[in-house]
Specification:
alpha+beta, two-stranded antiparallel ribbon, three-stranded antiparallel β-sheet, 222 residues
């Protein structure tokens, strides 16, 4: 069996390569880390700048709320850390319209945390839509329409109020309100009341007998 001795000079050359590789790897890692830190505001993950992701990762309450799935606690913590203002500042140069900017930011929050802002609702496409102003005229209109026999019930889907007719037809409240404005509903209510029997109407039988209560007919001659 032949034993080959490695010359001392060859061993020294091999050993000298390891420190060089270690130095190269360390330098490469530093360059990568430095590049990430330098361009962290340009790197976006799921719509969130990397700098804000780092900020959330080092905040224990944020991590706990995210892992536990507590949407309310997570949103409250992010709000306390100023996430919404910071991410708006990041996107504002690209989205000048403040309404569109706010919806875009809340869409990002919804997709990453599941939180839906109070001013929004999730539409059938799975995206956020802005809730409209509360219609203060609807309660009064619905009361009149119910008395007139135009509608029997209503429900709300998203930001739209639907009304149901006595026959079961469903239509948006605003469309029906154009056809039946309050003035018309009041007239219909009056006609409906006039067509109903009036128990307080009193007449005589023409023979001098005690008066009897009769119900007038809207078609009878005076």
């Amino acid at each position: 069996m032949k034993v080959i001795d490695t010359p001392p000079r060859t061993l020294a050359r091999k050993r000298s390569r390891y420190p060089n590789k270690l130095i190269f790897a360390s330098s490469l890692l530093l360059v990568l880390v430095g590049g990430v830190l330098l361009f962290q505001d340009s790197i976006v993950i799921k719509g969130i700048p990397l700098s804000l992701i780092f900020k959330g990762l080092v905040d224990i309450p944020t991590l706990e709320a995210y892992v536990s799935g507590d949407k309310q606690a997570l949103h409250a913590r992010l709000e306390k850390l100023g996430f919404e203002d910071q991410i708006k500042a990041y996107y504002r140069p690209k989205i000048r319209d403040e309404v569109k900017l706010d919806r875009h930011i809340h869409q990002i929050f919804y997709e990453t945390t599941g939180y839906v802002g109070k001013a929004y609702y999730v539409n059938s496409q799975g995206t956020l839509s802005l809730r409209g102003p509360v219609d203060t005229q609807f309660p009064r209109w619905f009361d009149l329409a119910s008395q007139a026999g135009v509608v029997v019930d209503h429900f709300k889907e998203g930001d739209t109020i639907y009304v149901i007719s006595p026959g079961g037809a469903i239509a948006p409240y605003k469309d029906i309100a154009k056809v039946y404005p309050p003035a018309l509903l009041n007239r219909l209510i009056q006609v409906k009341r006039q067509s109903q029997p009036n128990p307080n109407s009193i007449t005589t039988d023409g023979t001098g007998n005690s008066p009897s209560i009769v119900s007038p007919s809207p078609l009878s001659n005076p």
